[in-house]
Each structure stands twice: as C-alpha cells, then as structure tokens.
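Justification of resources, computational component.

The compute hours requested in this renewal are based largely on the per-chain cost of generating structure records like the one below. Each record pairs the submitted sequence with a full structure-token output. That output is archived, and it is also reused by downstream analysis tasks.
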Amino acid sequence: MLKLLSLLRDGRFHSGEDLGAALGISRSAVWKQLQNLESELNLTIFKVRGKGYKLSEPLHLLSAQTIVSDASHAPWPVFIHDEIDSTNAEGLRMAARGQSTPFVVLAERQNAGRGRRGRQWVSPFAENLYYSAVLRIEGGMRQLEGLSLVVGLTVMRVLHVLGVKQAGLKWPNDVLVADRKIAGILLELVGDPADVCHVVLGIGVNVNMQATDQVDQPWTSMRCETGATVDRNHLVALLSGELERELKKHQAHGFAVFQAEWERAHLWQGRTVSLIAGTSRIDGVVKGVDAHGGLRLDLNGIEKSFSGGELSLRLRDDS
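The structure output for this chain reads:
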C-alpha cells in the first residue's frame, strides 16, 4: 500500500493501468489499495475517468537523507518509521538494545502516541511532527532540572524562525498560539536519575494539519498560522541543531541562564491560575519560574514554587 502511496505522492494524475504495471498487480487490486489508503490513512484521493487517480495535494514524506543533508547540519542520526506505537516508546526500546546516543526517532503516524498525564496525542499520517530525541544523561538530577522548559523554549524559537511569530509558552510543557496548542513536550527517562540514565525528549508539533475532530482542546498548526505548507524535513533538521546547542548550554550552566527568557515568553505570566495535582487544587497568581524550572505562584502574598510531572496548570475563570 505504501508503494502505491509513493507513486501518488507527487499530487499528479496516474492511470490505474500505469499504477498496476508499476506495482505488478491488476487494476482491481490498485482500486482496493486506493480504498485502503483513504480509509486507513484518512487521505483524499481524486478519481477522474480518463485521467486516473491523484492525491488532493502532493505528499512530502520524511527522509533521513534529506534531513541529514539539510544546510542547518542536523547533528544526530535519524530513524524513520511509516507507523509505530510511539516514537518515545521506540526510543526507549532502542536505547535498551544498545543504540548509541544521541539519536532521533520519527514516524509518519503513531497509533499509540502519548501526551502528558496519559493523554492520547492525535497523530494523523504525514501531517505533523512526531519526534523523539534520545540522550544519555550523566551527573545526576542537576542535569534534568528545567530540561523540559529548555526544550519548550527551543521549540518556540524554531517556530518563530519558521514564521509562527506569536508562539509562546505555557508551564510546564506546552507551546501555544494565544490559547491554542501548537506543540507539546513529554520527557521520559529510564535508569538512575541520580547517576546515569537515558532521557527521551518527546516533541509533538502540529505542522500541516488543518482539520480534525479528535482533539479535545483548542489547537492550531504551523500551516493554519502561516497559510503555507511546512517542509517537515527542514523542521526536523533545524530543531535538532537548535536542541543540540541549547542542551550543551543547559548542561554547562543549568536552567538559570534560560530563566529570564522563559519568563518573557510565558503567556500566562501574571495570570490567576489553578494548579491541579490529582484531586488537589491551589489557586494563585503566576510570578514566573525559579532557577530550577519550578512554577512560582503568589498565594495571597506568599510566594511558593511548585514542580512535578503530574501537575496541571489552568487559567481561572476570573483571570
């Protein structure tokens, strides 16, 4: 089926006879595969008598060769899957099998993509970016402090470079345009966080998605914001290069050197919020983040910092 897709990816008409000849199958078998492409990958295929078949628009698939040869010099090896359960899960499996780090896992589609707090990450085929960078971390917990915030800041900068100028941050792991989510970060680790461990930087970016009924919160995409199709291969190369530079800076100096810039980019700075931890709720005003990446809240004149992977931040209705 994917061989047929590769023939159609140019967005031009191809006759059933030519497609069948290229694949070594009958025209009726071509028709069945076309139906499968539409149903399984949610693609729109035009069928015109006398012309043949074409995708509604050209399809630009991920290419390791294109990414590595990009002018921004993507620094890490890339492994691409047509479909996988989760790029984060595959990254952890590869690390367990001894794959040398750092490396990047990408997929055209995930069938079990994960967001924070066990949420599903919607992953339509060949539209968005499902990216996991796997790193070996040495030196204990200090190397992990504020790491997800540094990743979010880096993603935001890359979006700015590629035309999404209004992108900003929401503590701890979201990138928003106004109140609409455009990207999210999920960090997972295995090993001893006090000594040596592997960390997966999972990044999901809504790139060329224009419509879906599967997302249960306000969202946008790079294409929705810029009006243009985005080259995902260039996005990967640029993101990897920027991450390598910023992670080296974080390793050398910690989160404190990013603190002021992160606060300037925080869209909820000064807003009244509710911090949710399980069934507990704390109301306060966002003051910023501390030197370790924790959220600083003003609680009736008393400032406290909060951090933890299971915390969720929401705007108060009266904010």
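The mean pLDDT is 89. Residues 232-253 form the longest helix (22 residues).
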